[in-house]
Amino acid sequence: MATRFLLAFAAAATPSADAGELPPKAADHVVDAAGAHFNEELLARVVLTSAGPGLDRDWVIGLEGSDGAAAFVARHLVETRVANESFEGRPIVFFLTEDLTTVVVWERTVEARVLEFTAEGDRLKDAETGSTWEPMTGLAMAGSLAGRSRVRVPSTSAIWHAWKTQFPDSRVFGEPARP
Fold first, then answer.
1. Is the pLDDT of residue 175 over 80?
2. Structural domain spans, the chain
3. What is the enclosing helix (H) or strand (E) of 163?
4. Over the range 169-179, which residues count as b (16 or more CB within 10 Å of their CB) and which as e?
5. Which CATH architecture has domain 4-10+25-172?
6. Residue 6: pLDDT band with limits 50, 70, 90
7. Three-class SS of residue 12?
């Protein structure tokens, strides 16, 4: 299953000066990843500083589950590039590539053992065995778990404004629960 992108531009919050009308709803901007092209202008609209709560223009990685939806603000990954979390009782890890363009989400359980990950360049390393993992394939490349793989967690890359429009009750990883 291809990752979906929900696109909402910063200009979506204000009426168009030329047309005098509001742009279509963010939910109308769902495209397959193969059709999405991020250029320098679009990336400049996405905030990549690590501090502070989620903003409408933030890039988020969204997860949908049987108990609801949750999102992780990608800029919170900029410093460590890894977040060991849990979603619907499953231990998961978010990983941001060194060039800050791609986030992948994997389960952290391998052979009934929950692993804690850190970033080492564009690889992941687990604290329990010291194994090195390729984050795009989920395979252990070196160490005692070499050759083992993890389960990928389906995720959606979105702009926060679009995600919260689609999932208004979404939980945000790393932020206090909303009333």
1. no
2. 4-10+25-172
3. helix 160-166
4. ebbbbeeeeee
5. 3-layer Sandwich (2.102)
6. very low
7. helix
